[in-house]
Design brief:
Blueprint: H1 6-14, H2 21-33, H3 43-55, E1 65-71, H4 87-98, H5 102-110, E2 113-118, H6 136-148, E3 156-162, H7 166-178, H8 182-185, H9 194-210, H10 218-225, H11 228-243, E4 247-249, H12 252-257, H13 259-264, E5 272-274, H14 281-290, H15 306-324, H16 328-331
Parallel strand pairs: 1-2, 1-3, 3-4, 4-5
Helix pairs in contact: 2-3, 3-15, 5-15, 6-11, 7-9, 7-10
Length: 337
């Protein structure tokens, strides 16, 4: 299963499967029978019903879940948009593979296997202020790399990324997808100062001007302004939808990867949970545009899929309560709570 052409990608995005409505109804009926006042577990009840719809069963479980991390390098870093050099991307990939990063610890704690895909780190994307970041072939290859990380035996997928300069690309994607001003989407990223934020803002404005006359569909927006790791996330989210696998989004970068998709078809977010809202200023604005309410707000801004991994603990708690609680009849408790 590959995205053989831009048209193939566009067709997949236009034809999105929905959840199993029968399983949703059955899960809601079970919630009504559990030994608690109706609605007393708040969003935990909603999460259980959400998972039921995508797993197609009234009592969903997470037997196998994966954090998929994608890494790529960005030509736009020549403009000084990051506090770190592009070489850090490969160094952090080595850290992931050695088990020494935050996401290794957090994935382990959440019962998530970890898969890392490095995408042509020795070949940064083009500087998108003067040219498209990728050719059509490069963009399709990145989409396919993301799709390949989504196997059919997964019950849940979380997404992570690593790529010096990618908060600038994410801001450009959001601006082209949802409008506003460049400053609305720019933040410190890896920790740049006020001068760095000013440089990022100017870079994003030049990029949007450069591509102003280009087609505004999702594929072209990703190709022109994305990075390989960002495009891979988009491919993974779309393939997960085709397979009916729910996705937990991480922070600003991962959420921005689906902004162009949502601009074309807002229904793409229906199988997604926003794991958290990060400290990156544009993230809360982006989640509002996507119509997603984050599970957590912990002031995190690491990336790597870290916030999504932490959120999986909440999701597992929701499923445990839904599956393991007794019904009123089983517990011989009056149903008048």
């Amino acid at each position: 299963m590959t995205f053989a052409s831009p048209a193939d990608f566009r067709t997949a995005l236009a034809d999105l499967r929905g959840p199993d409505q029968g399983a949703i109804a059955a899960a809601r009926a079970r919630q009504a029978e559990l030994t608690k006042p109706a609605g007393s577990l708040g969003r935990l009840e909603e999460i259980a019903v959400f998972l039921a719809g995508w797993q197609g069963t009234a009592r969903p479980r997470i037997a196998r879940a994966r954090t998929a991390i994608f890494a790529g390098n960005h030509g736009v870093t020549v403009h000084g948009v990051s506090a770190f050099p592009a070489s850090v991307t490969a160094q952090m990939v080595a850290n992931f593979e050695a088990g020494g990063a935050a996401i290794n610890a957090l994935s382990g704690a959440a019962g998530l296997e970890l898969a890392v895909t490095a995408l042509d780190l020795d070949k940064p994307t083009a500087d998108f202020t003067i040219a498209p970041a990728m050719t059509e072939a490069e963009c399709l290859a990145a989409l396919d790399a993301g799709a390949a990380a989504v196997t059919g035996d997964l019950d849940l997928l979380t997404i992570g990324e690593m790529g010096i300069g990618n908060s600038t690309a994410a801001a450009a994607l959001c601006l082209r997808s949802f409008g506003g001003a460049a400053a609305d989407w720019i933040g410190p990223g890896t920790g740049v100062d006020a001068e760095g934020i000013a440089r990022k803002t100017a870079v994003v404005e030049r990029a949007l001007a450069c591509h102003a006359d280009a087609p505004a569909d999702a594929f072209e927006t990703l190709r022109r302004l994305g990075g390989r790791e960002i495009v891979a996330i988009a491919g993974a989210v779309l393939r997960a939808r085709q397979r009916g696998i729910p996705v937990v989004l991480d922070g600003f970068i991962g959420s921005a990867a689906i902004a162009p998709l949502a601009a074309d078809n807002a229904a793409i977010v229906a199988h997604c949970i926003a794991g958290h809202v990060s400290a990156e200023p544009g993230h809360a604005r982006l989640l509002a545009r996507l119509g997603l309410e984050p599970l957590l707000a912990l002031g995190m801004r690491l990336g790597e899929g870290s916030g999504a991994a932490v959120a999986v603990g909440v999701i597992r708690a929701a499923l445990a309560a839904h599956d393991q609680m007794a019904t009123f009849a089983e517990a011989r408790v009056s149903g008048s709570l």
